[in-house]
Amino acid sequence: xxxxxxxxxxxxxxxxxxxxxxxxxxxxxxxxxxxxxxxxxxxxxxxxxxxxxxxxxxxxxxxxxxxxxxxxxxxxxxxxxxxxxxxxxxxxxxxxxxxxxxxxxxxxxxxxxxxxxxxxxxxxxxxxxxxxxxxxxxxxxxxxxxxxxxxxxxxxxxxxxxxxxxxxxxxxxxxxxxxxxxxxxxxxxxxxxxxxxxxxxxxxxxxxxxxxxxxxxxxxxxxxxxxxxxxxxxxxxxxxxxxxxxx
Length: 247
Ligand SMILES: Cc1cc2nc3c(=O)[nH]c(=O)nc-3n(C[C@H](O)[C@H](O)[C@H](O)COP(=O)(O)O)c2cc1C
Hints:
Layout: H1 3-10, H2 24-35, E1 46-50, H3 54-63, H4 69-72, E2 75-82, H5 85-92, H6 102-125, E3 129-133, H7 140-147, E4 153-162, H8 166-170, H9 179-182, H10 193-199, H11 209-221, H12 224-241
Antiparallel strand pairs: 1-2, 2-4, 3-4
This protein binds flavin mononucleotide.
The site of flavin mononucleotide (FMN) has 12 residues, from strand 3.
């Protein structure tokens, strides 16, 4: 295993940070690494919000499903899929761009998340831990207000960073599924009942597959946060579903 692949295997989410600040040169290295990520048409279809205001961090901790460690992070970055900035560039040239659609949003979200993952990897190489916060996609109205998000700008993901506390370094990384459970050759293949059960063998503790899966389903898929995320997405999508030209 080379050093890069080893680092990818060893990275795990960090949710407890020491008091050590992130050095300015490390912050810049992390941000610059983001910008080096692949980007559709090299358009860098994202804007990164660096949240330094402690009151905003506290508010984000509340809005993002009450996760207090967000407010304790030493660096908080929100990667916004930005379908607005090129519209401004086009309009600056006297052009009349069409309104962006859901496809534009998806492309920009891909750009944003790929840039974010570069930040994660760069931070890891500097001994700085990180954690994604998916809940930034919730509470669209409050999030728009808190971050002054205009139409066509969507907070695709948030990352919190800090030096890992010792217990975090020692924590076991959650196990992944086997490669054969994830990779299909040439075309999508539905899993058989036997294959599904084999995937979860040894993963449900003392519970039956059914009991474990029902609890997981309630905790993740039928949860308040995932319903709120979908509701919020509809709020953001409203602008993207309108047809016509940008005024
Ligand atoms: C899109 C996304 C959203 C996530 N949101 C949260 C979150 O809100 N809170 C949290 O503690 N972890 C969050 N995580 C971290 C995952 O829980 C973590 O990556 C997963 O359990 C695997 O563990 P590992 O990162 O240590 O390998 C998120 C990860 C991703 C990729």
